[in-house]
Amino acid sequence: MAASQSDLLQLKNLGAASVNILHAIGINSYDDLKAVGPVNAYRRIKARGINVSKVMLYALQGALTDTHWNDLAPDLKAKLVEEAERESEATPG
Asked: Which domain, by its residues, includes 9?
């Protein structure tokens, strides 16, 4: 069994399209996602020119905590967006 191929699909909020996007940025397992973190994964996705909304950021966080993205606390969502925007502003280019 290809655990690294299937474990992302088992995570809450992630379907085939999201997993394909994660594979495109080099995230192939739960451990990869955990190591990179939701904010950096989201930044990598945006840097590749893949058009995703902030819901993808929330979905990645929720995937790590086994929480539906819509059930994340509003202050956590705001913090994630702030981090993603702050980091992207600091990124050259």
From this structure: 3-90
Q: What is the pLDDT of residues 83-93, one digit of tens each?
A: 999 855 655 54
Residues 6+ apart with CB under 8 A from 24: 48, 50
> For residue 30, what are its two tokens?
């739960």
Q: What sections of the chain are H helices per DSSP?
A: 3-10, 16-24, 30-36, 38-47, 54-65, 74-90
CA distance 85 to 50: 16
Please work out, in degrees rounded to the nearest 5, the angle formed at the alpha carbon of residue 36 by the alpha carbons of 81 and 48: 70
Q: Which two tokens stand for residue 1?
A: 């069994």
Q: Can you give the pTM of this predicted structure?
A: 0.88
Radius of gyration of the chain from Cα atoms? 13
Q: For residue 22, give the CATH number of its domain.
A: 1.10.150.20
